[in-house]
Amino acid sequence: MKQYIIDAFTDKPFAGNPAAVCVMDVWPDDTSMMKLAMENNLSETAFIVKEEEGYHLRWFTPGSEIELCGHATLASAFVILNFFEPESSSVRFNTLSGVLTVNRKGDLYEMDFPTYPLKEIPVTDDMEKAFGVRPVKALLGLDLICVFETEEQVRNMAPDQGMLMKIEGRLQNATAAGSGVDCVSRSFAPKVAIAEDPVCGSAHCQIADYWSQVLGKKEILAYQASKRGGYLYCEMKDNGRIAISGKAALVAVSEIMAEL
Predict the structure, then answer these.
(1) Domain range holding 187?
(2) Cα–Cα distance between 7 and 12 in angstroms, integer?
(3) Can you give the CATH number for the domain in which 83 is found?
(4) What is the C-alpha separation between 65 and 257, in angstroms, rounded?
């Protein structure tokens, strides 16, 4: 079985967010997929099987299977549209989050994703202890979004992973308005065995939605300020969904020799 390593939300290797992508004829058991995800030790390993209509896509972190992942969806589309269906301009994935369609537009891969209602919740002392800086606002949807006063606070924070485990939300996201971009963010996910997600597409279903409302703009250029860094081109749609686009770069193609 071939495995592809793709860096998502970047146009050059060793930046953005790396994902492993495995395209298979049949599903191995969940335990085997979990073991390979742990072996890869990337924030996500994507597993794909061809179906009559499109492909079935599943995502595994080193800790668990998850219901939505942006960068591994982008990486999966890159693999399918470059190695399996190079004549196609779009690919359809059936996932735990429903049908996700990815369109190739030049060097960008545009993903059609859901948005999630955000409810403002009180800022707590635990949030301040977790991030090392007190947020000015907190919102809870699929994940926790903490809004900070300045971009520098987001870029320079050193979160307490133990405290992050105690606060609500699968991912804990720090975001602020950015200079040169609409927003700057970082994503932390110790609950799924990821200290910091280098560039998180699914988090921007909420982050970009929030900044779109605050800034009164449908198009949001977002930057994730991890050590690797990456850009996300986000556009709010009239149907309540969001288009998130990014570039991708091939790093490696390998053969999995272990039996799954």
Answers:
(1) 119-240
(2) 8
(3) 3.10.310.10
(4) 23
Q: How far is CA 39 from CA 3, 67, 93, 131, 193, in A?
A: 13, 20, 25, 29, 13
- As for how many domains the chain has, the answer is 2
Distance CA 46, CA 55 (A): 12
Q: What confidence tens digit (pLDDT) does each residue in 84-108 have?
A: 999 999 999 999 999 999 999 999 9
**Is residue 260, in this structure, part of any structural domain at all?**
no
Q: Is 156 helix (H, G, I), strand (E, B) or coil?
A: helix
Phi, psi of 236 (to 5 degrees): -75, 135
Pair 144, 88 in one domain: no
Please tell me whether residues 143 and 99 are part of one structural domain: no
Q: Which of 44, 110, 151, 196 is catalytic?
A: 44
* Residue 110 is a catalytic residue: no
State the pTM of this model.
Answer: 0.91
| CA-closest candidate to residue 181, choices 158, 155, 202, 143 | 155
How does DSSP classify residue 148?
Answer: -
Q: Are 201 and 9 in contact (CB under 8 A)?
A: yes
pLDDT tens per residue, range 115-140: 999 999 999 999 999 999 999 999 99
Rounded Cα–Cα distance for residues 224 and 198 (Å): 7
In the three-class reduction of DSSP (H, G, I as helix; E, B as strand; rest coil), residue 66 is classed as strand
